[in-house]
Amino acid sequence: MERLRSFKPLSSPSTTFITGALIAAVVFYVVRAIIEPEVMIQTLAKALGLGATYAIVALGFVLIFKGTQVVNFAQGALAMIGALFVSFLAVDEHIPLTTIKNPLIGIGPEWFGWGLSVVVALFFAGILGLVLERVVIRPMIGQPLFSVAVITLGLETMLRTMANDSVRIQLRPLGIPWGTGGFTVGGETNDAGITTGGAFIAWSYVAAVITAIVAFLAVFFFYRSRMGVAMRATAFDQEAAMAQGINVGRVFAIAWIAGTILAAIGGIFATQPPIAQTGAAQVETQFIAFRALPAVILGGLDSVQGALVGGMIIGLAEITAGQYLSQYAGTLGSGYPLIVPYLVMIVGLLVRPYGIFGTPEVRRV
Amino acid sequence: MLGRPNLYTSYAGESRIFTTTTQKVVAAIVIVVLFLMPFELPVINQIPFIRFLGDNDYLRPVSTALVYIIAALGLNLLVGVAGQVSLGHAFFMGAGAYAGAFLGGQATSTVYGHGLPIWIWLPGAGVTAALIGILIAPVAVRLRGLYLAIVTLGLVFIGIHMGNMDWGRRFAGDPGLGRDFPPIEFALWKGQEPLVTAADDGRWLWFDVNQAEKTYLILLALTLVMVLVAKNLSRSRTGRALQAIRDRDVAAEVMGIPEFKYKLMAFAISSFFAGVGGALFASLVGKLPASQWNLFLSVEFVAILLIGGVGTVSGTILGTIFVVLGPRIIEEVTRWLDRQTEAEGPVATVAEGVLTEGPGDFGPVSVATQSPGWPLNVFDWNVVIYGLLIIVFLIFEPLGLYGIWLSIKSYFQRWPFSY
């Protein structure tokens, strides 16, 4: 792949469009914030929670794409399987705190056991990613990008069918260690201590944001480590990296392990508010990855900061549309916020065909 | 050039559909057999596979395969010939189906419909889909490769949502049940007695034909026309220009091929085929909810191309037959195995090992239609096998069934030498 950093300045129509859109957005949010500050706080909190989840899944896409030049369409099915692992380990079997004959379930608070289960689940998710990379992706090295992308579509078809089969009739709860509660900003408290109005911020939003921050910091520092530099070198040119003595196979494996683990984390948050209210894995859980794809594309397929920015923009657009266009829900159809990511993506790509931070492909004859 | 089939003395000779007399004869025989397949005729009935496919039970999946061929040819033109990766084929099929239903369907209190005859609604479906393709193309031409794939994937989700919106329901009907699509029948104008209809049994020439056979024959004729169009398109000036763009777009432009014009054309023609295929498919099924035009349908068509062989018309036909009839055959085999479990012997042991008939069995295939959890039922296994086939073909035989056919052919041509 011949990819170069482009130092070309933004072309003027796209600069005008971006500036115009930004000014319009800022004016909109400022005006709404002055009119109804609490609604705006609520919207922004939801958008942060949703955007953080999108950013986590998008980061998984980007890591795999940067490491192996593969757009992994199976990310949604992997998110679903990660959530099912958590459901099985944390809710059904209480692994690892209980073994079959040695109930240790009482040890520590509830979140401690749940957290350990999640760690085990992520471990298995990582192993799944490793196996998939070895069996399916490794033989395709050097093939056209499209062929490899279609291979992941085949994987998606297989994994999704198997995963859907276990949730089709009965949802699989994941357990919610941070509870369904949250805290309220503003509002009025009456004499009985009951708060009315105000912006309700669920703990799951906070958890998603913290996880996203941790994930992005981890990737940021990883890219500065020896292995991370090797990965960036591989992303730039696989053959040249191999000639420099970089173990490209190991880079591939790490990219897929990290990508699968991030997908599984995204799958966990996709069962929590504001995405789903049930706290259980269901058929819709996997669509998180298909809605995170616009975030990846908007930010740029090969850009880590693009995943963060793209995820936040998509999350903000989806929640804002859901909040402020709800009086037109009849015309727009129920569930209209769910297609907002795609519309934002199409408009964004018209302005910048390689996303905000993506590197344009150099075309040669 | 008798005896020297690989010697071409002119360009026209090389780009013929059938280069040798043998090929012409074989093609003629195949077409005749396909037309006579449903009937109980002495010679044709002795061909083993044909006797089985000509059965009324099997004519339905065979008819579906014919409709799929039309739509798959469109995707082949876009992906295989022009090299524009699209996951939005289901969207264009849906667009065609609803345009067809709008023109040809019966109006009710909840959905539109004008009841026009097939010679209006079928081309109308294709043209509407093509117009939508032309609308999308300016966006698509700016993008390449995977960016294009993901944008067209977004189209599928947007399309399903449009079917859910208030005005979309006027076209698509109830989101759960869908609407009635126009039947396959030829009339001169709306309200008139149809000249040819697939809705009842009748007598054509010397044969008694029932509904399934009539549908099959009409679709076969239509499909043959569309195959001819697609084949001729890919060997014409347009086809060569599209192939040049696929191989290296910058180089094509340098050689004087207007890239935008031809990409637009590829999208329009591909969408036309998709629209016609979608309208016929909906008409064949009769009633479909809007959520049926989903990503899985798109992936199915991508699978058809990859399994058959990207970029070739004959490969597309082979792939469609394989993908549409394969699940049916797996279903039959499962049913057959289920019967075998009652008997004794080695076959029964294998059947016991494969099938799960109740709690306590550990076979991977469940015979129950509702089976949450591990033993997947046959329908789920069919989907899993799709995915597996995509992976296996891409890794081991990137040219697909067409590539396998080529290697078999060249083996016999060179026999007894290996090269």
Furnish the topology, listing elements before pairings:
The complex is a heterodimer of chains A (365) and B (419).
Chain A: H1 12-35, H2 37-68, H3 75-92, H4 110-137, H5 145-167, E1 172-173, E2 182-185, E3 188-189, E4 195-196, E5 199-202, H6 203-222, H7 226-236, H8 238-243, H9 248-270, E6 280-281, H10 287-299, H11 304-324, H12 329-332, H13 340-351
Antiparallel strand pairs in A: 1-6, 2-5, 3-4
Helix pairs in contact in A: 1-2, 2-6, 2-7, 2-9, 2-10, 2-11, 3-4, 3-5, 3-9, 3-10, 4-9, 7-9, 10-11, 10-13, 11-13
Chain B: H1 11-14, H2 21-36, H3 48-53, H4 56-81, H5 89-104, H6 118-142, H7 146-162, H8 166-172, E1 179-180, E2 185-186, E3 196-197, E4 202-204, E5 207-209, H9 211-234, H10 237-247, H11 249-254, H12 259-285, E6 287-288, H13 295-308, H14 313-340, H15 346-354, E7 355-356, E8 365-366, E9 376-377, H16 378-396, H17 400-414
Parallel strand pairs in B: 7-8, 8-9
Antiparallel strand pairs in B: 1-6, 2-3, 4-5
Helix pairs in contact in B: 4-9, 4-12, 4-13, 4-14, 5-6, 5-7, 5-12, 6-12, 10-12, 13-14, 13-16, 13-17, 14-16, 14-17
What's the quick description here?
With 365 residues, chain A is mainly alpha-helical. Chain A has helices at residues 12-35, 37-68, 75-92, 110-137, 145-167, 203-222, 226-236, 238-243, 248-270, 287-299, 304-324, 329-332, 340-351, and strands at residues 172-173, 182-185, 188-189, 195-196, 199-202, 280-281.
Report on the architecture of this protein.
Chain A has 365 residues and is mainly alpha-helical. Chain A has one domain: Orthogonal Bundle (ABC transporter involved in vitamin B12 uptake, BtuC), CATH 1.10.3470. In chain A, 64% of the residues lie in helices and 4% in strands. Chain A has helices at residues 12-35, 37-68, 75-92, 110-137, 145-167, 203-222, 226-236, 238-243, 248-270, 287-299, 304-324, 329-332, 340-351; strands spanning 172-173, 182-185, 188-189, 195-196, 199-202, 280-281. In chain A, the strands form 3 sheets. Chain A has a two-stranded antiparallel sheet. Chain A has a two-stranded antiparallel ribbon with strand order 2-5. In chain A, helix 10 (287-299) packs parallel to helix 13 (340-351). Chain A is globular and about 70 Å long. Chain B is mainly α and 419 residues long. Chain B has 3 domains: 18-54, no CATH class; 57-292, no CATH class; 309-419, no CATH class. Chain B is built from 17 helices and 9 strands. Chain B has helices at residues 11-14, 21-36, 48-53, 56-81, 89-104, 118-142, 146-162, 166-172, 211-234, 237-247, 249-254, 259-285, 295-308, 313-340, 346-354, 378-396, 400-414; strands spanning 179-180, 185-186, 196-197, 202-204, 207-209, 287-288, 355-356, 365-366, 376-377. In chain B, a hairpin with a 2-residue loop joins strand 4 (202-204) and strand 5 (207-209). Classes of the chains: A mainly alpha (365), B mainly alpha (419). The interface between A and B is large, with 53 and 52 residues.
